[in-house]
Amino acid sequence: MAGRVHILKPELANKIAAGEVVQRPASVVKELIENSLDAKATTISVIVKDAGKALVQVIDDGEGMSSEDALLVFQRHATSKIATAEDLEAITTLGFRGEALASVAAVAQVELRTRQEPHDTGTLLRVEGNELKESTKVAMERGTAVVVKNLFYNTPARRNFLKTRTTELKNISDVVTRMAVVHPEVAWQYVSDDEELLNLKPKSTEDRLKDLFGERHFESLVNVHEKTDYLAIDGFVGKPDFSRKSRVDQFLFINRRFILNRAINHAVFQAYEHLLEKGMFPFYILNITLDPHKVDVNVHPSKMEVKFENESNIYRFVLSIVRKSLAANNLIPALSFQTDDIPGRFGERLGFAQRPGTPTGSSPQATSLGILSQVGAEEIDIEKLFGKIERRMGTDAAQKDGEATFPTDLQCATQPAADRVFPHRPIRAPGEKEPVQEGRAIWQIHNKYILSQIRTGLLIVDQHVAHERILYENALSNFENSLPTTQQLLFPQTVQLSASDYSLVKELAPHLGKIGFDVKLFGKNTVVIEGIPADVRVGSEAQILQDVLDEFKNNEHAQTLDVRDNLAKSFACKAAIKAGDRLNTTEMIVLIDQLFATQMPYVCPHGRPVVVKIPVDELDRRFGRT
Ligand code: ADP
Ligand code: MG
Question: For the whole model, what pTM was predicted?
Fold first, then answer.
């Protein structure tokens, strides 16, 4: 009986293998662009018809090929990019497996034109189902043009698997965008069904981003640029108010290769700490430059996944570098009254990402008052700023500055610090100068917001969330350090708790101690509060303890927080001054001082904004001065 095992015919093997490389028109676009970039092209045109199903054409002005080479490229494992096993250890090109053209040719009708210097004629090859149909000489510019027609014409099942035209076109646009973002030195043209969607001149990365995403969007980005011995990270991350409900605007590259990687994604996300609201994802474009020996790009035929020699190392670098870049920027939300368009997503701008029901152009929120943009880093140095306010308050320079007088409903807080409702004595080092009381540059309104003039406009601080941020960070650092600031009570308070709260206090006792609660367990669900954190108002200790426990339980149900983080949040939320608490000038200054000494002054631990700015230009515009 004849054996049943046999080797597959090359055409069939190629068709099968093609499935891994060419899943959809966008994969063809990706592979062809990679080849053009590997050939050092400086101009690349991508032309598609019917979302790439009818035609994908990529034209470059790269090195081109000799006619001998051109005849080889449709064979599987034909490549000029690697030769030895060592080469595979350190890939510096986008392609290296020698599979792309063979795969494409197995499932489509392909025409290749190419000319290499110094030859003065080019080669034209026509291939169908891996069979060479035509080979002639052509006159052409240096470079290569590949036309791929009727993708999957010979594998109908695959063709039927393709998604809608819109989806397939969007996939192609995503590929072109990624490539264009990370290769700003290349000129790109992108045409779909005779409509030019992109025409990008070679530019700096900054300008390329502006071209792709719009000026306004660009302004909301923070530059990341850091080099260590191990790696370099370059790119941009979005300020928190530019975050998205999905991960679509996340571009990660390793040595300018677009990759998908959950760990690094998470590292970036993590760097935003509490800056993002739940369910929001940051915008980012980051390229990690890494010794190619330290990353294996040969894990998947589509080369979108990679394996790192040391992933946790990369994770830590990315986390700390992105965090640092965010912290180095003043992420103060500015109030904008503008009614012009909110920067649309790139897709919307080009009109190819239109989902039903998503209006392009100005969005409905655009007309309402909202936090739309953020001020640039250069505008404010908060510490200097408040130093200045403090100094100014010591003199009567303010009057000489010709500052405006205030409308009467702006309540100027000038009471001496003694008659305060503010429960927390601002803690100052002994001998440290008390700021002068009678000031004019800081006010409280509605016992809720603190207003202050800054060089570029008006700063508004929500007193409750500001204090919450301060207490939260204090609590967190108290967990790390061993010296809590406890005020011992003259009259310890005995409190009867529910059985479950009693056991919660028991469980949290060490942590409570760290943030300044001195609570003794007395048995029978009774605790004695002997000391309270310096920030807690004497007289309200029992209430605050109960509130903190309740908040802790709430958080526990709602989200999975680390115990200490939960406790810090609960405490901060409950012990912070409330809207309605009247503050005097000293208290306001100290509050703001302390706020800007925190690591993340612009958002409260729950993600609400703490600070908002109204730029002078905005006021000028409102009052018709411009
Ligand atoms: P790989 O890119 O993995 O080497 P491909 O099948 O994509 O495999 O391409 C095979 C070879 O064809 C490449 O190694 C390269 O030498 C040549 N080639 C393909 N496209 C181009 C191009 N646009 N310009 C110059 N050479 C090209
Ligand atoms: Mg290739």
Answer: 0.61
